[in-house]
From TrEMBL:
Pathways per UniProt: Carbohydrate acid metabolism
PANTHER family, sorted: 2-DEHYDRO-3-DEOXY-6-PHOSPHOGALACTONATE ALDOLASE-RELATED, 2-KETO-3-DEOXY-6-PHOSPHOGLUCONATE ALDOLASE
Stored SUPFAM superfamilies: Aldolase
Keywords, alphabetical: Carbohydrate metabolism, Lyase
Alphabetized Pfam families for the sequence: Aldolase (PF01081)
Lineage top rank: taxon: Bacteria
Family annotation (CDD domains): KDPG_aldolase (cd00452)
Name of the protein: 2-dehydro-3-deoxy-6-phosphogalactonate aldolase
Length: 211
C-alpha cells in the first residue's frame, strides 16, 4: 500500500486549509491530528503556503500525509516536494502536473468534472479523482460515473461538503471527501476547527475510519 492508501484507509477525510498562515498552522494541525485526520492539504493560494507545508511535515509528517492543493504547474510540484510535501491536489486535470508528481513519487489527486478528464487522469497515474465542484456535479453524476469507471477508482467529492450531505455522496459511491470552508476558513481558531472536525468525524460511518 502507498502512504495515501494507508492514510485514506485510516480516515478518508482531507482537511483543506485554504488561507491558513504559518503562525497558526501547527495549532490547527494538532487539533486535526488529535481528532483523527490523517491527510492535510495547504492550498498554494494561501499566505506563505510552502512554509506551512514544511512546518506541518516537520511536526506531524510521521502521522499524517501532508501536501498542497491548488497546484497548477509542474514547477509548483517541485516546490511542494522541496518543502517536504508528499501530496499534490489540483483543481483541474493537467496531465503535465500529474506526470511531474508521479515522476517525483508523490501522490496526486487531480480535479475532474467530466468522464474524459477522469479517464485521462487515471491513465496518467492519478491516485484518486477529485470530483470538483461537487455541489455542481451532484450525486447523480457520481453514480453514473461509478457505473463506467474501473471499480477501484476512488472518487473524492470536494466543494460544498458538510456533515449533513456526506451520506448521500457515500451512497452514490464516494470513497471520501475533501473538506474546505465547512472545516476551516480564514479567522477560525483551533477550537473552531476542532468542533467542526468532530462533527465531520461523527458523520462518517464507523466502518470508514479506523483511527
Amino acid at each position: 500500500m502507498t502512504c495515501f492508501d494507508t492514510a485514506f484507509t485510516r480516515c478518508p477525510l482531507i482537511a483543506i486549509l485554504r488561507g491558513i498562515q504559518p503562525h497558526e498552522v501547527l495549532d490547527i494541525g494538532r487539533v486535526l491530528v488529535d481528532t483523527g485526520f490523517t491527510i492535510i492539504e495547504v492550498p498554494l493560494n494561501s499566505p506563505a503556503p510552502y512554509q506551512s507545508i514544511a512546518l506541518l511535515q516537520d511536526t506531524f509528517g510521521d502521522r499524517v500525509l501532508v501536501g498542497a492543493g491548488t497546484v497548477t504547474s509542474p514547477e509548483a510540484v517541485g516546490e511542494v516536494a522541496r518543502h517536504g510535501g508528499r501530496l499534490v491536489v489540483m483543481p483541474h486535470a493537467d496531465l503535465a502536473v500529474i506526470t511531474e508528481a508521479r515522476k517525483r513519487g508523490m501522490i496526486c489527486t487531480p480535479g475532474v468534472a467530466t468522464p474524459t478528464e477522469g479517464f485521462a487522469a487515471l491513465n496518467a497515474g492519478a491516485d484518486a479523482l477529485k470530483l470538483f465542484p461537487a455541489e455542481q456535479l451532484g450525486t447523480k453524476a457520481l453514480r453514473a460515473w461509478k457505473s463506467v469507471f474501473p471499480s477501484r477508482t476512488r472518487f473524492i467529492p470536494v466543494g460544498g461538503i458538510v456533515p449533513e450531505n456526506m451520506q448521500s455522496y457515500l451512497d452514490a459511491g464516494a470513497a471520501g471527501f475533501g473538506l474546505g470552508s465547512a472545516l476551516y476558513r480564514t479567522g477560525y481558531s483551533a477550537r473552531d476547527v476542532g468542533h467542526a472536525a468532530e462533527r465531520f468525524m461523527k458523520a462518517l460511518p464507523q466502518n470508514l475510519h479506523t483511527v
